[in-house]
Amino acid sequence: MNQLTLSADLISRDIQPVKSERKPSPPAYLDTRVTKSQRESRRTRSQRARERLATKEHLSRLAVGLGEVELAHKIERCHSRLSVLTCGRHIARIIPNFTCEFRLCPDCGRRRSRRLQNKYLPAMRAFMLHRKVTPVHLVLTQTHKKENRKQSAARIKDSFTRLQRRGFWNQHFKGGTWSLEFTKDKNGLHHTHLHIIGFRRKFFDIELLRVEWLTATGDSHVLHLKPITDIAAGLQEVVKYVSKPLDIRRFGAEDLKEFLGLKNMRMFGTFGEFRNFCKDFEPSDNDAAAVGESESFSRDLVEGCACPQCNEPLFDVRMSAKELPQFYEQVESSPPGEVRKSSH
Ligand SMILES: [Zn+2]
Ligand SMILES: [Zn+2]
Predict the structure, then answer these.
(1) HSE-CB for 246 with a 13 A CA cutoff
(2) Which of 67, 193, 257, 342 is 20 to 30 A from residue 158's alpha carbon, by CA?
(3) What is the rounded CA–CA span in Å between residue 129 and residue 143?
(4) If residue 184 lies in a helix (H) or strand (E), which one and from where to where?
C-alpha cells in the first residue's frame, strides 16, 4: 500500500524523506504539539475557567441534540455552585455542589488527572530511585485509516503490545505508563497517539526504536522521544490527555455519540515492571510529602484554617461557576510569585 495516499497531512511529510533514504525530518506535527502545550500552560486560570465553561455549554448542547437530556442536565449541574475557600489573595480549595463524572467534562477531568498524579507520582519517584532508570516521554503514532475511534485505539494498543514483546524494548525499558490521545483531522480521520512515560534502562539510537515501531505497526515509524527532567511535570503532561482526550472544540454530535459508545475504554494504564511495582507500592510519609500541593492536602482545609500560601485565615465564598473566572482574575492581580504557587 502506498502510505502517501493514506493522508496528506503532516505525518506523511515525515514519511517522505525515508523514501529518499535521508534522515527523517523532525516530525512537524509533534513540534506543533509541544508549542501548543506550552501555549496552554501560559494561559491564566481565569482563561482556563472560561474555556471549561464554554466546553461544558457546548457538550450539554450536543447532548440535548442527541436526546441525552439527563446527561445534559448532569453536565450543567456539575460545578455550577461552588464554595471557594480563599484568603482573598489565594484560592486554597474549591468545593463543588455536584460532580457529573462524565469523561469529557473538563471539571471532572481535572479532578481525575489530579487523582492519577497523586496516585502515581510517589510510585514513579520510588521506582526511579530503586531501579536506577530515567524517564522519557515517548509519543507513538500510527498511519490513518478509515476506522472508528474504538478501532483506531485498539489498533495502536495492539501495536504497543507487540512492541513490548520485542527484545529491543525489554533491553531498554522497564515499564511505565501509557495514555491515549485522540484527534481528528479535517478529513474526518482519527489520529490516535499513545503517550508513554517509559523508564529507560540505557541510551539507544532513536532510529533503532523507529525500526522496532515499524515492525510492530507494519506501517508507521513515526514517534517522538524526549527526556523528562522533572517527573512531576512529565506526569502532568501525559495525564492531561486523560482529562482532555480529544479536541472538544471540533467535536460534533456524531463524535459525542461515538464517544458515549466507548464507555469502558481505558485511557490510562501502567505496563511492564512498573505495573507490578505499583501493585505492591505503599507510599511512605516522605513519598506523600513529595507530591506537594496534592488534593489530599487541600482536602483537609476548612473555613478558619490558615492559607497554605500566606497564613491568613481562609473564608468561604459562595459563587456560581459563571462567577469563578472573574474571581480568578481578582486573585491573579495579586503578586505574581504567590499566585503561581497556588495555581494547579
Ligand atoms: Zn463534571
Ligand atoms: Zn493566602
Answers:
(1) 22
(2) 257
(3) 37
(4) strand 173-184
Task: Return the amino acid letter for 311.
Answer: N
Question: Which ligand is located closest to the Cα atom of residue 321?
Answer: 1
- Ligand 1 centre to CA of 304 (Å) is 28
How far away, in angstroms, is 60 Cα from ligand 2 center? 35
The cell 472560561 sits on which residue?
Answer: 50
CA distance 218 to 161: 13
**Cα–Cα dist 89/85, whole Å:** 11
Question: What is the pTM assigned to this prediction?
Answer: 0.75
pLDDT at 114: 87
Closest ligand to Cα 307: 2
DSSP structural state of residue 111 = H
What pLDDT does 14 receive?
Answer: 34
What separation in Å is there between the alpha carbon of 104 and the centre of ligand 1?
Answer: 8
Tens of pLDDT along 22-72?
Answer: 444 444 344 344 444 555 567 888 999 999 999 999 999 999 999 999 999
Using alpha carbons, list the distances in angstroms from residue 26 to 54, 79, 268: 34, 42, 27
Closest-lying ligand to the alpha carbon of 89?
Answer: 2
